[in-house]
Amino acid sequence: MELSWFQRTYLLSTRKNDGIVDRKLEGVIYMRIHTERTLQLPASVLTIGALDGVHLGHQTLISRAKERAKELEVPLVVYTFDPPPRVYFKNTLLLTPLTEKIKRLRFLGVDHVIVASFDADYVTRGASSFLDELTDLNPLEIWAGPDFQFGRNKEGNINTLRERFTVHVLDPIRCDLGEIISSSRIRTLMMQDMLYQAERLLGWQTLFHDSKEDKYITNK
β-strand 44-48 against 139-144: which pairing, if any? Predict the structure, then answer.
């Protein structure tokens, strides 16, 4: 199968003998990128969400899922959307373009990322269609936030997921001021030019940038 421009650009490694190893080689973390309905796995741990900003709450969610994937000796898969649903429906501020989101997920040690094109066709998919797609990943566990909804007219939710899968829900993460860390909160801060406060909730600092690679640390 011929790879799309997106896949050619961000396909960072292939896994030999069906084994994805979360590892670093000379500072590079290897990860594969897929469009929806193209990946099948014998087993996985799955995280689902818009993940706009890949903020501290998202980082905690991915970290917990990564720990479980390591314990279960299966790959960690992130299923995300481009654009994020809130951006698509409400035209809100996009915190991280897809290319930046991919870089941050790679930094966090994700093995596979599935990017669903959230468009007019995608929003007509029913909840059962989404569940069938997830079944192809054979998730031993699914990790998500408490407000995750899916399917046409938001007909699916965490309880729907639990009808088929083992699901872990991460409680909201709060900052040191006691406020819930969310993409919506960060957007509000950015629109108010409160960039320092927004950066603290995002949890990222760009240490170095060139045409090849961004170097990050996190503020966790």
Answer: parallel
Rounded CA separation 174/31 (Å): 29
Domain residue limits at 154? 5-215
Question: Comparing C-alpha atoms, which of 69, 65, 29 is closest to residue 48?
Answer: 65
The parts of the chain modelled with pLDDT lower than 50 are 1-28, 206-220
DSSP reduced 3-state for 150: strand
Q: Please give the biggest Cα pair distance in the chain.
A: 50
**Residue carrying the six token digits 């969310």:** 182
Give the integer Cα–Cα distance in Å for 72 and 44: 9
What pLDDT digit, counting tens, does each position of 140-156 carry? 999 999 999 999 999 99
CATH number, domain with residue 87: 3.40.50.620
**pLDDT tens, 22-34?**
333 344 457 999 9
Total H helices, total E strands in the chain: 8, 12
pTM to 2 decimal places: 0.81
Q: How far apart are CA 29 and CA 111, in angstroms?
A: 9
Number of domains in the chain: 1
- Whether 220 is covered by a domain: the verdict is no
Q: Which of these, 2, 104, 99, 109, lies nearest to 45 by C-alpha position?
A: 109
